[in-house]
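Supplementary notes for students who missed Thursday's class. We covered one full example, reproduced here. Read the sequence, then the structure, then the short commentary at the end.
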Amino acid sequence: MTQYPKRLIEIDLPIKRISAHARREKSIRHGHISTLHIWWARRPLAACRAVICASLWPDPVDPLCPSTFKETARTLVKKWSENNLGLLGSESYSRFVRIQKEPARLDNDEELRRALLDFIADFSNWDNSTNEKYLETSRSLTQSAHESLGGIPGTKPLVVDPFAGGGSIPLEALRVGADAFASDLNPVAVLLNKVVLEYIPKYGNKLADEVRKWGEWVKKEAEKELTEFYPKDPDGLTPIAYLWARTITCEGPGCGAEVPLIRSLWLAKKNKHSVALKLVPDHKEKKVNFEIIQDAKAKNVKEGTVRRGSATCPICGYTTSAASVRIQLKKRGGGAADAKIITIVLTKEGYTGRYYRLPTENDYKTINRVKRKLAELTEGNREFHK
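Structure (token representation):
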């Protein structure tokens, strides 16, 4: 039976440092895969990069670790200590300085192991993800590990991800010098992976130019067809979204009010632009109206009506259970038909922010036009399929 050495991931991993880089990565907006398409539970690239490296590279301390890999690793770590100290994080710097002064320290396999783990921790930093020095070193280590463990010279290790989702793992596998095989049941995920793993490497900037070109075309064509449903306000602001809330009937004794289902009353929550909704109970009409609070402060913004699936009535204070809320919505076919429009989101040419206002009579007229148009299209679609 063939025995293989343990990989670094089975021994140790600088979790604290990798996690810090993964948290910081959430604020990255330029060039990050997440800007291509929002995906559920996307794995941080920092963590994927670190885990893949640690899974592919054997532990130098393990007696079964090939000597050729250890020699390659020593040579590369020594090179880093001589030429790339400025690229290292503060927690790795002192170790590599000691190696620079005393290269024989790398004869100790445990010291080599710690140096490789330091390298992985620093490589997980987003700023180093496209650094040629890090890429070249990681790919050399990956190739050396692959061939010294029995891989055919000239081939690469294969990383397989059968549930690839947004593509974080296969992307990082390619980055560190492995081949990747990715699949998913969701066709959107498949398209994302094809773009990231095939189209971008093959077409590069040409693909980006074409996406911008045709994206602009789609935008203009959509504006032609949809302008009548998003008429400009007298002050020049243009509606871009109509925010709705599904509703239920309060089951409190003698109440029966219409309760909008809203988890949060915040519309925008930024230091210089905070906007929120205020619930205004109408006890006479048994319904809830709204006001918009500009420059809203947390102390002035109450909780929404929904919490853990249950709904609390702003009129009488009674809380309808989550089970009853589900039953009501099911009877209403999901509740979309009885939804209540609560806010209009608007934009202004040359302004990147958003404006908010309450619906007016003109908005309800526009919504009725949309409903009539939708009914026409639905009927036309039925006739087409007959």
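Commentary. The longest helix spans residues 361-385. Residues 238-385 form one domain. If anything here is unclear, bring it to office hours.
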